[in-house]
Amino acid sequence: MFATSFVLGYHGCERKVGEAILAGREHVTPSRNIHDWLGHGAYFWENSPRRALDWAQFLMKHPPDPARRIRDPFVIGAIIDLGNCLDLTDAGSLEIIRAGYDEFSRTIAQAGAALPKNEPALQGDIDLVKRHLDCAVVNFVHLLREQEHNPFDTVRGIFTEGGELYPGAKIQAKTHVQVCVRDPVVSIKGYFRPPGGV
Question: The CATH number of the domain where 88 resides is what?
Answer without folding.
Answer: 3.90.228
